[in-house]
Amino acid sequence: MSRDRAWLWLSYAGLLAFAAFFLIRPFLGAGEAYGPRLVPGITYAYSFVVVAAFVPYAVAAWASRRGISFRSAALAGGALHLTVLLAPLTQSQDLYAYLFYGKMWAVHDANPYTVLPLAFASDAWFPWMQWADQASVYGPLWTMVSGGVARLAGNSLGLGYALMKTAILGLGVASTMGIARASELRGRSPGRDVLLGLWNPLIIVALALGGHADVAVVAAVVWALVADRRGRPMPAALLLSAAWLVKAYAGVVLLVYLLALARRRIALGLRGGAVAAVITVLAWLPFWKGPVTLEGLGDIAGRASASLAGQIQLLLEQPLGETAATVVRVVGAAILLGVIVVMTRRPGFADDPWPAAAAAFLAYVAVTPWFLYWHLAAPLVLALVAGSPAVRAAALTFSGTSMLTASFGGSPWGRAVQTSLRYGIPALAAVRVARRPAREGAPPRSQPQRRSSA
Fold this sequence. Notes:
Blueprint: H1 3-24, H2 47-63, H3 70-85, H4 94-106, H5 140-153, H6 157-185, H7 190-198, H8 201-209, H9 214-229, H10 233-244, H11 251-264, H12 266-284, H13 295-301, H14 308-320, H15 323-344, H16 354-367, H17 377-386, H18 389-401, H19 412-435
Helix pairs in contact: 1-2, 1-3, 1-8, 3-6, 3-7, 3-8, 4-5, 5-6, 6-7, 6-9, 9-10, 9-17, 10-11, 10-12, 11-12, 11-16, 14-15, 15-16, 16-17, 17-18, 18-19
């Protein structure tokens, strides 16, 4: 066995131990492993374990630099994900929220966008619901999925949990195949891109363990890229529309893609826009009760987390009061728009909009006040298969720093240290890669091909 392969599988053993920790640890506590976890602050539980797991992950990334077969990367990564797939939720409890909102719609015949979960406090599933006073913030397509799961589960929360995780598994498999196909179409190494995605500790805890809806966004975005490369722009527009009807932030990629279609041909852009509009209207139709339907999404959009923009908002609240939230969002939107404008003006954008989409997606992550680490899943995967070297470096590094918790009790200087570490290190990585001169004598990178859409 070569030295690189030895290091690769040694690092994999470390990642397997990391996955086993999250499978075993809940059963060692005093409480019920699958019981309600209403303790505040568990979203970043065991964050130090996740950050530490990036050491073997970095070794695996280095050891695979000369390539790894798709089969080896996928099977080994699949074992990591299967290890935690049915483990108790250790961090985010959002999967239970999906099930409860779905049950409200499919079983209780209530609109989860206009009725609060508190209205069903007597439901046996209610103790697991952490967002009891919050209308649903998830897209209508995801509510339909969770509603179908809730109906099949009947009164069994355990069955609902297993079915929801099974759906997550299916979407994960679709995402893995999509990463491989997208990498091939862009002249990259499918095996290594699958390793960088599937073996990533953040992806493991956010998707396989946490069961977040963002896995549906990942699957839709990578297969939209594949459809576009195959010269099928309308299926690509349909998939991106579905992505933003699961999580609204995916609208960034949809916007960039529609701009690219318009640059190819105005008629093509109009057709893509019509596809997006029709699927959006049809998806919201069962739930629409006027503007009040979007109040839950508006509420969450007005909040701030421990993101860079969120911390800036917190600092500005003392001199500006409630105006601080508006200022941060206006400036953030202007920065995001500026990135989109710059990227769309680059040569070749119309034919290949995906590097621009990856840059815009990551820019959104950088400027949004409401960011949680699982929101990075889709931007990370798109950066892996289509981003520039600098964007890839920033996304991969941020996946490792986004869970750093060093706020020292939440003091202002502690939060500043935490934010600097989370965002400063990825920024430095991106700058370093962007300034790296091209290697002399390196073989030219193969260019992605797109079949005619005529």
